[in-house]
Design brief:
Layout lengths: L1 H18 L6 H20 L6 E9 L5 E7 L4 H10 L7 E5 L6 E5 L17 E2 L3 H27 L5 H9 L14
Antiparallel strand pairs: 1-2, 3-4, 3-5
Helix pairs in contact: 2-4, 2-5, 3-4, 4-5
InterPro entries: CNPY (IPR042415), DUF3456 (IPR021852)
Family: Belongs to the canopy family.
Pfam families: DUF3456
Length: 186
Amino acid sequence: MASWIIQITVMVLSVFISSCQGKKDKVLYCSACKAIVDELNYSISQVDPKKTIHVGSFRLNPDGTMQDKKVPLARSETHLSELLDGVCNSMSDYAMYVDPDTQEKQYKRFAPRSSGAKGDFPDFNNFQFDGPEASNALKFACESVVEELEDDIISLFSQDTEHVHQQLCNTVSDYCKDSAHTNEEL
C-alpha cells in the first residue's frame, strides 16, 4: 500500500513539475541576442586593426621550428572569449522601447557610447524605464544566451559572418524567428 502511494505521489509531482516549466520571454531573449551582437560589434570596432595575436601550437617541430601564425586580435577566439565574459555588464544601458507606430516592444540601447557624438541621445519618450529589475532581467537573459550559444557566437564573429544578427538570433537560436523586427539593427 505504501509503495502505491509513493508511486502516485511521484507521478503527480512529475506532472506538476513538467507543467510549471517557464517559457522564455521572446521579446527579452530576442533583444538580449541582438544586444550581444551589437555590443560585440562595437567592441570589435574599437580594437586597432593592426594588432595581431599569435595562435597555433607552441610545440617545437623536429627540425626546431615552431608552427604558429598571426591573426587579427579583434576577431581572434581569445579576444572574443574575453569580450563575451563582460558583454552582459552593459545591459544596464538598455531599456524597453515601444515603437510609436507599430507598438512593437523590444529592448534598445538608450545610453550613448563613451566615444559617441555629444548629440547621440535617443528620444526618451518611447522608452519605458522600469528600474533595475528590467535591466537585471535583460542581463540574466544575456547571460543565458551567452552560456547557451558561446561556441556559435565565437564561430560567427571569428569568421566575420555577414548579418550576424540574423544568423545568430534567427537561424542558430530561433529567439527572433517570429519577431516582426528581425532585420532591424539595434
